[in-house]
Amino acid sequence: MRDLSPETEGSMSTAPHLAHSPPILTVQDLTFSAQKTVLLNAVSLNIREGSRTLIMGPNGAGKSLLLRLMHGLIKPDAGTITWKGRANASEARRFQSMVFQRPVLLRRSVFANLSFALGVHGLRGKLKADKIRAALHDAGLAHLETRPARVLSGGQQQRLSLVRALATDPEILFLDEPTANLDPASTSAIEQLIMKASARGVTIVLVTHDQGQAKRLGEDLVFLQDGEVAETGPAQTILTAPQSEPVKAWVDGRIYLGSKAGY
Ligand SMILES: Nc1ncnc2c1ncn2[C@@H]1O[C@H](COP(=O)(O)OP(=O)(O)OP(=O)(O)O)[C@@H](O)[C@H]1O
């Protein structure tokens, strides 16, 4: 099994510019249980600064839980999350943003959704308004500025969620299946925004089921199966030459039941 654990981190880059990137976030032996069931078990991985890391795996593998834990929305039972070398740093969330599969928008205008988020981050007046207009322009949403956010199409709503998440200049962006319900054109618009953010140096952590998207966007890949890391390493290597049974089956399009085989 390839391993993205801290000890072997230096040897697994596919992206030359990332070969010596330090981890911005390290997960060590993370365990999370609910209702007497272990949902994540001893998960360890590195997110390298400036990288695009994919979290993949079947339904119920624990991908969303892992993302929420890394973002500090829920607390682990055991293990540590280290932000820039500091374990369980309480201030980390200020430098992070998250986009959920279903857009979570305020019942206000497109402009007001951005204005609220930037206001929370301390921006005021003309500086804030200029930043909102530039962000909407970049995302092709400028003409919808006064429209109630809730009446936008699904694709537009997700673009707005992403723009809002990026407007606060996060150092890391967590995305939980942001294109799961979108058509190819909307998916492409979201991917372009992600790639632009990545080019500016924003670290990207993306949960996806979409192998095409994984090939287009992935640099590092973490594959979860039944709450454990089945395989991690460079995305292109795993996608073309997987080592573990669950990932081989997934890449081949075969159904792998694993521990659920008796169900
Ligand atoms: N708060 C909770 N209490 C109890 N069980 C939970 C809780 N949150 C998640 N789970 C369970 O943990 C498992 C992992 O959930 P998670 O949402 O992380 O899966 P996932 O890999 O993101 O799946 P999908 O691809 O379907 O979105 C599931 O079996 C889910 O029912």
From TrEMBL:
Entry keyword Transport: yes
Segments forming domain ABC transporter: 25-251
Keyword Lipoprotein: no
Transmembrane feature ranges: none
Residue runs in coiled coils: none
Keyword vocabulary terms for this entry: ATP-binding, Nucleotide-binding, Phosphate transport, Transport
Molecular-function GO terms, alphabetical: ATP binding
Similarity field: Belongs to the ABC transporter superfamily.
Protein name, entry field: Tungstate transport system ATP-binding protein
Annotated source species: Roseibium denhamense
The organism's taxonomic lineage, starting at the top: Bacteria, Pseudomonadati, Pseudomonadota, Alphaproteobacteria, Hyphomicrobiales
